[in-house]
């Protein structure tokens, strides 16, 4: 249920007058409106690209489709997940940003034909998109003064006995602990063992080496025993 910020369009799209929303919804930081400016600038860039450099534009279009629509088909993501996985579409957004940039060139070309201040006009309009997106998104993407992950990691490590081994599962459990050790030097004597990687030969070999102040993890299998498909 996206909103553009243009009242009559949003009212038609969402089926209700947006001016009647209660304040806690209308004023929530996550309600971001861009008035279609980034979208239209990208479409202008795409049209200009196909007009001027058709082969190049087709290459960008393929990248856009394969990193967007094709990912939806290939990934077959279920509608309900523990957390949003929209980061898998990041490459399609980066690709669309190519057309956003070309959109500024298209504006320059349009202004130049009319004899206006082409460069200044193109830059002024082109800056609207990042300025609008920056100001709209800042308050709901600001991560300053959020230390929960770091503090949990420090607590986990500090609860361990000297030279202990702590087992983690997956990235959410592991990365904060690695950060605490590698960046802030917290309890570098504790060895973090990520069970999600423990079936991979390079990781097992890595555990057999000293890291920071943590001793190697005792292993009974040799590197040859676990190499490649040998461990199957």
Outline the secondary-structure elements.
Blueprint: H1 7-14, H2 23-26, H3 37-52, H4 54-66, H5 69-75, H6 90-113, H7 118-141, H8 148-158, E1 165-168, H9 170-182, E2 191-194, H10 201-207, H11 223-226
Parallel strand pairs: 1-2
Helix pairs in contact: 3-4, 3-6, 4-6, 6-7, 8-9
Entry keywords:
2 strands, 232 residues, elongated, mainly alpha, two-stranded parallel ribbon
Summarize the structure.
This protein has 232 residues and is mainly alpha-helical. The chain is built from eleven helices and two strands. The longest helix has 24 residues, at 90-113.
C-alpha Rg, in Å? 26 Å
What is the topology, as strand order, of the major beta sheet? 1-2
Major β-sheet, in short? 2 strands, parallel
The geometry reads as elongated
The computed structural class is mainly alpha
Helix content: 55-70%
Strand content: under 5%
Number of helices: 11
Give an overview of the whole structure.
- The protein has 232 residues and is mostly helical.
- Helices cover 56% and strands 3% of the residues.
- It has eleven helices and two strands; from the N terminus they run ααααααααβαβαα.
- It has helices at residues 7-14, 23-26, 37-52, 54-66, 69-75, 90-113, 118-141, 148-158, 170-182, 201-207, 223-226, and strands at 165-168, 191-194.
- The protein has a two-stranded parallel ribbon with strand order 1-2.
- α3 crosses α4 (54-66) and α8 (148-158) crosses α9 (170-182).
- It is elongated, with a radius of gyration of 26 Å.
- The model has no long low-confidence stretch (mean pLDDT 92).
């Amino acid at each position: 249920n996206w909103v553009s910020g243009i009242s009559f369009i949003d009212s038609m799209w969402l089926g209700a007058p947006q001016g009647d929303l209660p304040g806690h919804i209308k004023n929530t930081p996550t309600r971001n409106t861009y008035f279609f400016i980034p979208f239209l600038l990208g479409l202008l860039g795409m049209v200009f690209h196909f007009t001027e450099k058709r082969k190049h534009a087709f290459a960008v279009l393929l990248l856009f489709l394969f990193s967007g629509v094709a990912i939806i088909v290939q990934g077959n993501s279920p509608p309900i997940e523990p957390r949003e996985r929209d980061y898998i579409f990041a490459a399609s957004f980066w690709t669309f940003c190519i057309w956003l940039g070309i959109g500024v060139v298209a504006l320059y070309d349009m202004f130049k034909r009319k004899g206006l201040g082409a460069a200044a006009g193109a830059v002024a309009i082109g800056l609207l998109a990042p300025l609008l997106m920056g100001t709209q998104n800042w308050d709901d993407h600001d991560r300053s003064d959020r230390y929960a992950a770091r503090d949990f990691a420090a607590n986990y490590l500090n609860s361990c006995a000297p030279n202990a081994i702590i087992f983690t599962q997956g990235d959410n459990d592991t990365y904060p602990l690695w950060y605490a050790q590698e960046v802030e030097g917290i309890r570098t004597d504790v060895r973090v063992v990520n069970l999600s990687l423990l079936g991979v030969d390079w990781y097992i070999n890595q555990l057999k080496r000293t890291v920071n102040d943590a001793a190697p993890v005792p292993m009974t299998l040799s590197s040859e025993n676990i190499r490649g498909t040998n461990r199957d």
